[in-house]
Structure formats: structure tokens, C-alpha cells
Amino acid sequence: MATTSTTVPGPSPLSTSRSFLARLREGDEIARLITFLFAASVVLLTVLLVFELWQGSALPRHKFGFEFFRTSTWDPIADQFGALPFIYGTLVTAAVALILAVPLGIGAAIFLAELAPARLSDTLEFFIDLLAAVPSVIYGLLGVFIVVPLMRLYIQPSLKSTLGFLPLFKGPAYGVGFLTAGVVLAIMVIPYIISVSREVLLSVPRDQREAALSLGATRWESTWKVVVPFARTGIFGSIFLALARALGETMAVTMVIGNTPTIAASLFSPGYSIAAVIANEFTEATGDLYLQSLIELGLVLFLLTFILNGAARLLIVITSQRGSGMGNA
Amino acid sequence: MNGRLRWRKFVSNFMLTMTGLCALIAVSVLFFILGYLVFHGGASISWNFFTKLPAPVGETGGGMANAILGSAKLLFLASLFGVPIGFFGAIYLAEFSGSTTAFIVRYAADLLNGVPSIVIGIFAYSLLVLPFKHFSTLAGGCALGLMMIPITLRSTEEFLRSVPGALREGAMALGASKWRTIATVIVPAAYRGILTAVLLAFARVAGETAPLLFTAFGNRFWSPGWNQPTASLPVMIFTYAIAPYEDWHRQAWAAGLVLLGLILVINIVARGILSRGISVPR
Asked: pLDDT for A252-280, tens place per residue?
């Protein structure tokens, strides 16, 4: 994941010392130009993507301005578009997902990095990588036919009878809704948290553990009070990465969230998310304002994940550099 | 042993067991998914699934032959579009570029990698569907190809960089020009890694659904050529799973099994290639 920008500088002194014509004759300049065009097209496509999102959402940006994010009427017939229920649904499901996934993911990462013998750790990591490769529509399929009935028949009734006094667990148990979407998202992001956190934990220098153990700490105390704090920034990075994935996830959420634009305190209530509304309504959007409102939602999603991914990368790079820096010292 | 120490030892053992339990739960999800799909999908998979068109609503039977072919065409287009850009772009980054250009290209690739797949769909829609006024295989393939670029680019670059400098210098010392060195020494030395990168990118987009919803759209029939909407396995799973027909659910399970099987096999093969070494030994 870390950027290796220090190795192998571009053109070697050998090639620059020869004349431009000589390099042209030997084909180096042509190869350079061709590969440059391919590399430049990556930048071009990215810029074009941002431009298209910005340009494509001009109408609602001018018409609604900031009201777009503050109002909750989504009425294509009256040409009124307010994105609040979708933003709310996206944030709530992502929050539920993180609350469930973070302890489990970090626990598993600690086991893989600190406790398991190298062979077992590698084997389990292999399975975790495969889990990360399972496409989201498969999670959605299992969500619809397993998680939703499970929620409706067992989990939501039992939550209601034990924690029903909280506003979070009130209302009828439909099966679909914020909680179900959050649970499915949690299952989906756990592999990412485990993989990245394990990597970060493994980069903590050995001396740190040995120092704690030699001072009389138990194995858990050395892990929890020394190793984990040392790797804290990187673990936060893995959580940000998971959050970005959860916010942008489309298929699995669309299939289990209930697709009703509501803002309700109860997690049992059916809801809607930004990605889900785009997936469901994009092909049916009649009229420019409707379509462009959906594109503006895409822009919001893009900006959210852009910020989170950037922060995640920064945190992970900081930790792994700190780890290797201390290790060398 | 005093009570305090005994308590600390107990906490330590308890918490470490809990972390083991977390790992066990996380990994068992994979086997649960696999088992459930094999159980449900295996029962509904048949020869018809691979050879027949979808049956009209209300009629049982039928298959997903058009979706399988559609997925194959989409993935072919995606590789045609995504792999060359990723591969040659990586060669530029690893062999030719200065550090500023490299930073910009890498940054763009990482940004592209983080874009939610539904947003990629919007982009492909406004670029390749809106101007032509119809959904097409072409638009879907390009959307998937766009997602392959950053994955191929970043890992290929890393594998090219892992080729030992001595090989490079050896070729140069024999008087080979730079592009000849790259084409005959560096790329062959890193080919296992590059193959892995391409395979993983392929497997990643093979299951993508969201970018296809409004680019390739869907189709109940065969889709001749590249210019018409086409069915694809992931989109079929989605539409069949949320439909109210019992028979469609069975088909969705079968399609899920085929898709997941394909993706896991590619992943395992790719990792198998890599485990025999990224490139020639240092």
C-alpha cells in the first residue's frame, strides 16, 4: 500500500549522457513517448471524471444550492430534490457497520499478527484475501435470503425485548432496514480492516514487544498497551479505508436497506442510501433536473470517499515509516 | 503467585482467546458463504443454465447463456481497454518518469481506485451512453476497464521495481538500448508478478455490478455486436434476487455459484503464481 517513491530514479545517467538523436535512433525516446501517453491518459481520465461529475450536476447546484443537503423532500414530479434522507441513511449504515466491524477486525488482526504462528497467520490471511474478493452482489444475495429473515424472525425481536427501551430499537421488525444494511456492510469491510491492521501491526519493531515483556508485562498487556498504541495511526487508517468502502458500497446495501427515504431514530426502520438511490433511479430519471440531482449525489459520494481515502493513505504511510524508522535506529 | 498476578494472567489469556475467536469468526464467514452457495446453487445448476436463454416470467426452466456470453464480452472489452493503459503506464512510472510526474500519475491512479463503483457507472454513462442515446456493451466494458487500470498500474509498477538492478545494468553494459532492456530483460523477469496483477484486476471487475446497471443495462435476449444493451451475470443475480419469483431465486443462486467460483479460482491461481516468486531470484 505504501508508495515506494525513493527507489530507481527515472532516466539513468547512461541514457542522458547520450545525445537526443542517438536515443531517438535507438527507439528510447519513442518508447518513452508511447508509455508517457498511456500514463498521461490515467491522469486525463481522472480529471475528466471529476469534471463530468461537476459539469453534470450544474442544474441542481444552481437551483438548490446548499438546500440540497438540508431538505428531505425527494419528489421528482414536483421537481423538488433534497438529499438529506440519503445522506442520513449512508452515514447511519456506515456507522453501524464500523461499530460491529472494528472490534472484530482489530481482534482478528491482533491474533494474526501477534499470536498465530507465521504459517497459520499466512493461511488465514489467504482466506481473508479471498473474502475481500467476494463481489458485493453475492453479499447482497446472501443478505436478502439469510440475513433479512434472520433479522426479522430472531435478532430484531430479541433486541426489542431486551433493549427496546432505547429509541434505536423501536418499531416493527421488517427485516430490511438500517440495521440489516449495517450488518451486511460490517461483514463486507471486516476483511479490509484485518488485512491492513495486520500489516501495520507486523511493522511494529520487535524491540517494543521485548521491552514490555522484559518489564514484566503479560502477553496481552504488551500487545494492548505497547504494540497497538504504536500502530494506532495505521489502524485508524484501516478504519478510514473501511469507512470509505462502506459509504460507497452499492449493491449489497440496495438489496437489504428497504429503499424508502426516511429519517428515523430506529435502526429497524427501512431507509435509503446515496449509492442505492443512484442505482435504483438513474435509469428511470426523466428530466434533466432529476438526472442531474442524482449525479450531484454521485459527486457527494465521490468527495466523501476521496477525503477518507486520502486520510487513510496518509495515516498508513505515517505508521509504516515510523515503524521502519525506529527499527533501523 | 499473588492474586493480582493471577488476575493479570487470566485477563491476558482471556483476551488472547477472544482475538483468536474473532479471527475464527472472520474466516468462517468465507466457508459459510461458499457452503451456502454450493448447497443452494449446486441444486439449481444444470446444463440448461449454461445453454438456454432466460425463460419468460411465469415459465420455469431456462438459463443464463446470454448473461454468461455478455459477461465474457464485457470482460474482454475491459481487459482490452484497462490492461494496456495499466501496463504501459506502469512501465513509464518504473522506467522513464521523473519523480513529479510519477507522483501525479500515482495520485490519480489511487484516487481512481477509491472511486465508488457506482460513480464509475455515472461517468461511463455521461461519456458513452448519453451521447449515443442507448445502453451498450461498449459502455459497460469501458466502465469495467476503467476500474482495472489503477489495480493493474500500481501492482505492475511495484513488480517492475522489484527486478534487481544488476539485470538492468547487465543489459545496458552489453550495449542494449533502454527499450530493448525493458522488453527483453525487465518485463520477462517480472512476468509472474505482472500476470498476477492482471488476473487480480480481472477477478475484481468480474463481479462488479453497480457500474453495469446503467451502461450495459440488461437484456433478456442475445446481444449481437457491441452496440446494444447486454445481460451480464452480476446484474442478473441482482435482478433475479430481488424479484418475487421462486424460480428466479434458484437461478440467482446458480449464477452466484458460477460467478463466485470463477472469481475464487482466478484469485487462487493468481496467488499460486505469485507464491513461486515475483520474479527471478535476487
From this structure: 999 999 999 989 889 999 999 999 999 99
Rounded CA-CA distance A238/A192 in Å is 7
Complex ipTM value: 0.92
Instruction: Supply the pLDDT for residue A306.
Output: 92
Residue B78 near residue B141, CB atoms below 8 Å: yes
Cell 482490452, residue located: B80
A140 vs A260, A291, B100, B170, CA distance in Å?
17, 26, 42, 53
**Helix (H/G/I), strand (E/B), else coil: B62:** strand
Q: Pseudo-torsion of CA A54, A56, A62, A63, nearest 10°?
A: -140
Q: Whole-angstrom Cα distance, residue A150 to residue A173?
A: 11
Which of A119, A122, A195, A250 has the most B C-beta neighbours within 10 Å, making it the best mutation to test the interface with B?
A250
Tell which residue, A104, A115, A146, has the closest CA to residue A220: A115
Asked whether A329 and A211 are in contact (CB, 8 A), the reply is: no
Is the Cβ pair B12, A221 closer than 8 Å? yes
Measured between alpha carbons, how far is A267 from B178 in angstroms, rounded to an integer? 61
HSE toward the beta carbon, residue B31, CA cutoff 13 A: 7
- What residues of chain A, 46 to 65, have a C-beta less than 8 Å from chain B? 46-49, 52-53, 56
Q: Specify burial of residue B18 (Cβ count, 10 A radius: 0-12, 13-18, 19+).
A: middle
Which region holds residue A61: left if phi is over 0, alpha if psi is between -120 and 50, else beta?
alpha
pLDDT grade for B13, boundaries at 50, 70 and 90: very high
Q: Does A283 touch chain B (CB under 8 A)?
A: yes
**CB within 8 Å of A169: residues ≥ 6 apart:** A156, A159, A160, A163, A266, A267, A268
Compute the nearest-CA separation of A225 from chain B (Å): 12
Distance CA A262, CA A276 (A): 13
- B144: nearest Cα among B228, B65, B235: B235
